[in-house]
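User: Hey, quick favor. My workstation is busy. Could you predict this chain's structure for me?
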Amino acid sequence: MPAKNRRKRVLVDRQIQGTLGLRIVTHWVLFFVVSVSVTAALRILTNVGHTSGWELASIVLRDQIGPGVVLLALLPWFVLDSLKLSNRFAGPMVRLRGAIRQLTSGEDVPPVTFRKGDFWREVADDFNLLRQRVLADRAAQRDSNRAASAESSDAQEDTLVMANVQVEAPDGVSLPSSP
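Assistant: No problem, here it is.
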């Protein structure tokens, strides 16, 4: 992906991505505990009666150090990769939410486009159709308001002109006086 098109932040929606990150860490811890428990149980079952309890405990712990270090080292990569992946659905929703807020507050909104590889591309297309409709309705409303305002102005001018016109009656005809 070109550098100019990459997101600069890993967390664009703290609620969604934070929940996802926490879930990944929880699953990793659960996997680690189960993995250590199963391998420890297998080691204990295969060495029962051959060694003392303390010696067996030290063997079990020593066996877990290598895999534990590797799994611990991989945890940040798992979380970071998951958060970067979640940018592909959280980022577009953040952008769409901002555009919806702009549109509802009456601001002029450019068409929404998502980055290559983002999810929800069809939602952007649907929003852009809605945006066109809203902008067209706004323009029609403005035109209607202008026309109504112009008609109202013309009607007021005609009324004023009519009020200032003095009509002369033919001889012998009396006209009612205007108020």
